[in-house]
Amino acid sequence: MDIEGLKASVIGEIDARRHELSELSLKIHANPELGFHEVKAAAWLTQYLVESGFAIKQGICELPTAFRGSYGQGRPAIAILAEYDALPKLGHACGHNLIAACAVGAGVASKPVIDQFGGSILIIGTPAEELGGGKAIMAERGAFADIDMAMLVHPGSHDTATTQALACQALEVEFFGKAAHAASRPETGINALEAMLQSFTAINSLRQHIKDKARIHGIITDGGEAANIVPAHSAGIFLVRAEDETYLENLKQRVINCFSGAATASGARLEYRWGEARYSPLRNNLTLAQVFRRNMQSLRRKVKLFDPSNAFGSTDMGNVSQLVPSIHPIVSIAPKGDSVHSPQFASAAASEAGIQGLLDAAKALAMTVTDLVANPEIVNKIKEEFQQDR
Ligand SMILES: [Zn+2]
Ligand SMILES: [Zn+2]
Question: Which of 22, 95, 273, 329 has an alpha carbon 20 to 30 Å from 180's alpha carbon atom?
Answer without folding.
Answer: 273
